[in-house]
C-alpha cells in the first residue's frame, strides 16, 4: 500500500508540473504573439489611421489618467505569479478591467516575494523614491535594504486628504492590508505623517485573508510552515526560479520578473558556487523563508493577521469564490468543465484536506470540514473576511441593497460561483459576469465609499 500511494503521489506531481508548465508557456506565448501582432500591425498601418490598441482588439479606448487628486485613483494589486502594467507585453493580469476607468493604476510587484516586501514596493511605487525594505527586515532575511528606484511616484500626492481605493486579487488583498497597517504604524522612514486613512477602501477579490490548505498540497510542510517537502511542485518551481534569476537574461527579466532582484542571485555576483549554494537551500529567499508561500499557509497567515487590524474609517468588501458543492453530505467539485484545467486537481484535493492528527491544530475551534469549499487555490472560508486568530466585523451580502449605504469598518462579503482565475487574464472566459463584477467594484468605489467627516478616535486594538 505505501508503494502504491507513493506511485500515486509521484504521478500527481508529474501531472501538476506538466499542467502548470503548459499554462505558464501558454501565458508567455500569448503575450509574445500579442506583441508581435501589434508590431506587425503598426508597421503596415497607414499614418492617418490612429486607432488605439484597445480599439483594434474590440475593447474600449483607454483613457489617460489624470491623477491630480480630483478623483481618487483605484489601484489594482495582482496576486501570486502575477504581473502589473509593463510586464508580459500588452497582456493584462486583470484582463483589461483597468480600461473601465480613467484613474486606475496597475503596479508591477514581485510575483513571488513576501507579503512584507510587496507592501513596501507598493508604497514607493505610489509615493516615489527608492524602495526601502527596512533595515531590520533586510538583515534578518539576508537581502539588500534598498531596491528599485521610482524617480517619480505614480501618485506622489497620496496622503489622508488624497486617499486611494485598493482592489487586490488573491495574495494582493493581503498585501493591501499589510500596507495599511504599515501606514498606521508609520513604518516608512521619512514619512512621519502616514496613517491608515491614506486608504479609503479595500476590495478583496478571491483574497488570501486567512491562508490556504493548497500550500500543503503544493509542498509546504504542515509540521513546519516555513519549509518545503523535499519532493514537491514548489521544489521544482524553486529550482526554476533560482536558475531564471541566476542567468539574469536582461530582455527576459524585463518581460517577466519574479521580484527577487534585492537578493542579488545573478551569476555575475554569485558565480557557480553561489548557484550551488542557492540550489542546496543554503542562501536566498527560499532558505530564509522571505517569499510568498510561507505567508499563505494557515499558520503563516495567522501569525501575520495577529498584527493586522480592520480600521474604522475604511470601507471593506470581499468576493469569496468557490467551485464546490455538497453532494450526499460530501464536498465535491461543482463542475467538470467549468473549472480551469490548472485548478481542477487542486479543487478535488482541497475538498479532501485533513489536518495531520499528530500536529497541534492551527487555531482553537479548527475543523477540517470548514476548509473543504474552495476555488482551486484558496479555501472559501479564507476569502470572506479576516477570521483568524481574531474574527473581524463582517456582513454576508445576498442582495446589493443590503450594503447601501456602506458602513466603514465592516467586511461586506459575497460568495460567488467561480474558480480562482475566473476574473483575471481571460476576459472572454468570464463573459458578462466580468463586466458585472468590475463595474460593481468601480461603481462602489466611486459612489458609495467616501468620507464626510474626520475619522473617529478609537483604541488601538482589533475590532
Give structural attributes.
single chain, 463 residues, alpha/beta, Rossmann fold, 7-stranded parallel beta sheet, two-stranded antiparallel sheet, 13 strands, disordered C terminus
Description:
The chain has about 475 residues and is α/β, with parallel strands linked by helices. The chain has a domain at about 60-215 and about 295-445: Rossmann fold. It is built from 16 helices and 13 strands. The chain has helices at about 1-45, 55, 115-125, 135-140, 170-185, 215-220, 235-245, 250-255, 265-280, 285-290, 290-295, 300-305, 340-350, 380-385, 425-430, 430-445; strands spanning about 75, 105, 130, 145-150, 165-170, 200-205, 220, 225-230, 315-320, 325, 330-335, 395, 410-415. The strands form four sheets. A seven-stranded parallel sheet has the order 2-1-5-6-9-13-12, sandwiched between helices. Strands 3-4 form a two-stranded antiparallel ribbon. Strand 7 and strand 8 form a beta hairpin. Helix 3 (about 115-125) packs across helix 5 (about 170-185) and helix 7 packs antiparallel against helix 9. The radius of gyration is 22 Å and the shape is globular. The termini are far apart. The model is unreliable at about 45-65 and about 455-463 (pLDDT under 50).
